[in-house]
Amino acid sequence: MTGSERDPYLSVKLQAAEQASGCRSFRPDVEEECVTDEPLSCLNCYFRRWTSDSYRCMAGKPATTD
Amino acid sequence: MRILVSIDDTDNFTTKGIKGTGDLAKNISRAIKSNGWGASRRITRHQLLLHEDIPYTSHNSSMCFEADIDPQFLQNVIDFSSRHLETESEPEADPGLCIVIPERLADPERLISFGYRAKREVLDKDGAYALAAELGIHLSEHGGTGQGIIGAMAGAGLRLGGNDGSFKDKHKVGEPGAIFSAAELCALAQVDEIKSLDGAVLGGDETVALGNMVKSILSGGKTVIPVQLSESAGQAPVWKTCSKEQIHLLQRTGQ
Q1: pLDDT over threshold 90, residue B153
Q2: Pick among B62, B198, B248 to test the A interface (most A CBs inside 10 A)
Q3: Which end of chain A has the lower number of beta carbons within 10 A, N or C?
Q4: Option in A2, A7, A30 nearest B20 (CB)
Q5: Which one of A30, A44, A55 makes the best mutation probe of the B interface by having the most chain B beta carbons within 10 Å?
């Protein structure tokens, strides 16, 4: 058990929070699938789809962080 | 008889988001108890590979729990779980069910190894079915492509290994900032240990402050609350429960 690694998804953390704050499609995912402590974040949204190092938004909007 | 029940891929892009895979696992767990088939333990969530080659990866996590059942009800558990996945999963999901009887596994390490491979590689259904047949594991698909059998079997392997996954739901033990001794927190949250991120087990009289949330993970076959050092300058160390982000990272990196 080690927490020393860096999580690549969290490199987009600030951007994900900013985008979600202005997004009308945001819908929180079920609790166990939320990954960041910021409740309103694309990282916690049901419409995000993970890629190997980031995510895509599938809520009918352009991809956010490819 | 001890069994592992593991499910995967029950939700999809168009769902209303009301029922996640964890909710379906909880329903099956409750049915085991309410039907008098046996008793279940807590559900773990196991993070598998996040990669664009896995179609529409929203979570790629599986849910697994242990149960002690009367052997005569094994088929009832399989039948109920199968029907539940078929009726409650979203129409476009690809649900899979895996039920393992650990004491009957000739080579448990092969199942555990499959679980860890699913955290690193894109695996296929043929390989999952071949291993299930060799090891005598129940593996079944219940809609769509049935791709969920891969994650379901991986979840069972990771639970069996005892060093992967976070337990579903948060512990409601107090407000952020509340202070407990490690022994008090263990008793309140009903967990086995409090462990630092570098793996040291906290002594019962060590001090733990609650962070924004309290989650437990499966580590060394035990239920463990992971903590990080909060402050220690010139005094006894104060530990703090890990954030959601740290828990997520532990799951992705396999702890």
Answers
A1: yes
A2: B248
A3: C
A4: A30
A5: A30
Could you read off the pLDDT of B51-99 as tens digits, one per residue?
767 655 667 889 999 999 999 999 999 999 999 999 988 777 899 999 9
Report the largest interatomic distance among the alpha carbons of chain B, rounded to a whole angstrom.
Answer: 60
Helix (H) or strand (E) segment spanning residue B224: strand B222-231
Q: How far apart are alpha carbons B247 and B226 in whole angstroms?
A: 8
Structure tokens at B39: 């008793």
**Using a CB-CB distance cutoff of 8 angstroms, which residues of chain A are in contact with residue B170?**
31
Amino acid at B103: E
Chain A residue numbers touching B17 (CB-CB < 8 A)? 27-30, 46
Q: Looking at the domain covering B2-166, what would its CATH class be? A: alpha beta
Where exactly are the structural domains of chain B? 2-166, 170-252
> What is the per-residue pLDDT across B180-224, written as a single tens digit (0 to 9) for each?
999 999 999 999 999 999 999 999 999 999 999 999 999 999 999
| pLDDT above 70: residue A4 | no
Contacts of B15 in chain A (CB under 8 A): 46
Domain range annotation of chain A: 8-57
Q: Taking CA atoms, what residue in B is nearest to A37?
A: B244
End-to-end CA distance of chain B: 29
ipTM for the assembly: 0.77
Assign A38 to helix, strand or coil: coil
Measured CA to CA in angstroms, residue B15 lies from A28, A57, B54, B172 at distances of 12, 15, 19, 28
Distance of CA A45 to the CA centre of its chain: 6
